[in-house]
Amino acid sequence: MVRESEIREGELAVEMPPARDGGLVFIGRIRTPWTSRLQAPRQGRHDGPVCRLEIFEPWVPALKGVDFYSNLEVIYWLHLSRRDLVLQSPKNNKSTRGTFSLRSPVRPNPIGTALATLVERRGSTLLVRGLDCLDGTPLIDLKPDRCLFTPLAPPRLPP
Amino acid sequence: MVRESEIREGELAVEMPPARDGGLVFIGRIRTPWTSRLQAPRQGRHDGPVCRLEIFEPWVPALKGVDFYSNLEVIYWLHLSRRDLVLQSPKNNKSTRGTFSLRSPVRPNPIGTALATLVERRGSTLLVRGLDCLDGTPLIDLKPDRCLFTPLAPPRLPP
Question: What is the distance between the alpha carbons of residues B130 and B43, in angstroms, rounded to a whole number?
Fold first, then answer.
């Protein structure tokens, strides 16, 4: 069931504390084919449509070497989500689960993570597959997939 | 090589824009054996030491059902990291890579992600293995590992 922002039976909302423990800067914007939550898939697929990660200045030089990796971890901000639910009812049937046992976009810090397949870099834009987010979603980080990445610096000796 | 906060030869710093596009609330604190960056491992290991995720109120009810999952995605805030480097030299040898092609803690939004193995839940605390972060690191989200999680709501029909 797709939620706009209503609370369902059995769900629990808390008073949301001020969200100023840490501040984010949007490093780019994600362009996808989905303009409404009614259309977006629940999880990305590696054979899904090509989406675009448009990187903003001054961060474009930080893309150097990114095309070395076939898979990237994409971290984004689910800007339309409410943040105050601790118990949620995904099936809207009164049965609830805790927010931290779900990958729902509704969470105290609405951060989404996805593993995307890199198709091509074009200047300040990356073409990728595997996303499920709405068109216009703010981008907050990109990292090589941890399974592919080996630290470049030498390992530290045990203390 | 371990960085405190110096800039190395060949690295490129930019003027950091104000970080107020999105605001975070710390949902808990991570307790690990590592109190200095000289000791912390570069990547977590699933046979590494047991660490604790201490969840703060009002978020404790959001843990309901979390012990159903053997692996959790842990998202945290690398509170000691500088944020303004776009080119970095992991080996400190003048050769640089873009920040988005590294998993370095130094990044515009210093968000770390790890896949941890859940050992046990004890009230508002989760015992996990697989982390590499410093003791006291602020926690910002917990999700079931995407590989284990199947959405509970029915799939959407293609538009």
Answer: 8
Per-residue tokens: B51: 């660490």
CB atoms within 10 A of CB B5: 8
Alpha carbon distance B62, A104 (integer Å)? 12
Give CA–CA dist B85/A109, Å, rounded: 25
CB spacing of A75 vs B42 below 8 angstroms: no
ipTM of the prediction: 0.93
- How far is A85 from B62, CA to CA, in rounded Å? 8
* pTM score of the predicted model: 0.93
Q: What is the pLDDT of residues B97-125, one digit of tens each?
A: 999 999 999 999 999 999 999 999 999 99
Q: Which three-class secondary structure state does DSSP give residue B75? A: strand
Chain B CB within 8 Å of residue A97 CB:
yes
Digit-coded pLDDT (tens) for B48-77: 999 999 999 999 999 999 999 999 999 999
A2 touches chain B (CB under 8 A): yes
- Closest residue in B to A139 (Cα–Cα): B109
Length of chain A: 159
Coil/strand/helix, residue A103: coil
Which of A14, A83, A140 has its CB closest to that of B111?
A: A140
Tell which of A45, A100, A125 to mutate to test the B interface (max B CBs under 10 Å).
A100
The burial class, CB within 10 Å (0-12 / 13-18 / 19+), for A38 is exposed
Q: How many CA atoms lie within 13 A of A130 on its CB side?
A: 19
